[in-house]
């Protein structure tokens, strides 16, 4: 079991914050998080590209290259692998592992389960040590129908963990945990179960997705509104030197 995989089997769930650039990743690591994920929305928005359309392969790889050698464990949100060809997805996973990533998140977008399973198999063949977090969008894009069948297929294909964003009902989450043989990843939402509640349900990994990126953008808009109104912005504002130090600090 790799160090990253072991974080999914401790007494407390792995809380995985998601960064969108070098500074945000280093700031989160400085808060004591042993592992950092990336957010595809943040990567796409920073590049002026739409999220979820397989257009950010190069940007994602560049970010992984910038972050993969840092003193924390990096898991990369790779959307659907940026291809419908499992071999291409496997090659991308190999590139991620080469630059230091330890995990990859792959979403099925409610496409054919057999195709997603084939991608998982290709990733495990190309980069055996990479932790594959197989995401199904049955709740994110649908009503939850077919979730168990998809998760069974992904487990059998070799997924190290599974991710079901959008499910918030405690009873449904608990049922998923009981059904699975691998760790369950849930997306934290402000209106869903709290971290302690998710832990009690048996969830082993809790992701923040694009929440931090959206909150940072919201804070920027709030600050400029305060300044425009003649008031001093509230909240925590890192100094120029603190932010600059994130890029100057050696890895």
Automatic annotation (TrEMBL):
Q: Which Pfam families match?
A: PEP_mutase
Enumerate the PANTHER family for this protein: CARBOXYPHOSPHONOENOLPYRUVATE PHOSPHONOMUTASE-LIKE PROTEIN (AFU_ORTHOLOGUE AFUA_5G07230) (PTHR42905:SF16), PHOSPHOENOLPYRUVATE CARBOXYLASE (PTHR42905)
Species assigned in the record? Streptomyces caeruleatus
Q: Which domain of life is it from?
A: Bacteria
Q: Which residues form a coiled coil?
A: none
**Name of this protein:** Phosphonomutase
Q: Which GO terms describe its molecular function?
A: catalytic activity
Q: What InterPro entries does this protein map onto?
A: ICL/PEPM (IPR039556), Pyrv/PenolPyrv_kinase-like_dom (IPR015813), Pyrv_kinase-like_dom_sf (IPR040442)
């Amino acid at each position: 079991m790799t160090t990253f995989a072991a974080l999914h089997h401790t007494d407390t769930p792995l809380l995985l914050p998601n960064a969108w650039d070098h500074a945000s990743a280093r700031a989160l690591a400085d808060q004591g998080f042993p592992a950092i994920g990336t957010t595809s929305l943040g990567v796409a928005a920073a590049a002026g590209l739409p999220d979820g359309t397989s257009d950010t392969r190069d940007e994602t790889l560049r970010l992984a290259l910038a972050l993969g050698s840092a003193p924390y464990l990096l898991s990369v949100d790779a959307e659907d692998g940026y291809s419908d060809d499992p071999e291409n997805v496997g090659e991308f996973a190999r590139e991620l592992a080469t630059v230091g990533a330890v995990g990859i998140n792959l979403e099925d977008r409610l496409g054919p389960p057999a195709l997603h399973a084939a991608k998982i198999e290709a990733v495990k063949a190309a980069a055996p040590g990479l932790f594959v977090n197989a995401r199904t969008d049955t709740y994110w894009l649908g009503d939850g129908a077919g979730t168990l069948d998809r998760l069974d297929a992904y487990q059998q294909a070799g997924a190290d963990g599974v991710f079901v964003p959008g499910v918030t009902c405690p009873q449904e989450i608990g049922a998923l945990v009981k059904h699975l043989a691998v760790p369950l990843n849930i997306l934290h939402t402000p209106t869903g179960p709290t971290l302690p509640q998710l832990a009690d349900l048996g969830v082993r990994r809790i992701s923040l997705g694009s929440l931090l990126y959206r909150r940072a953008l919201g804070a920027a808009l709030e600050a400029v509104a305060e300044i425009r109104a003649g008031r001093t912005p509230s909240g925590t504002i890192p100094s120029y030197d603190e932010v600059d130090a994130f890029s100057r600090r050696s890895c």
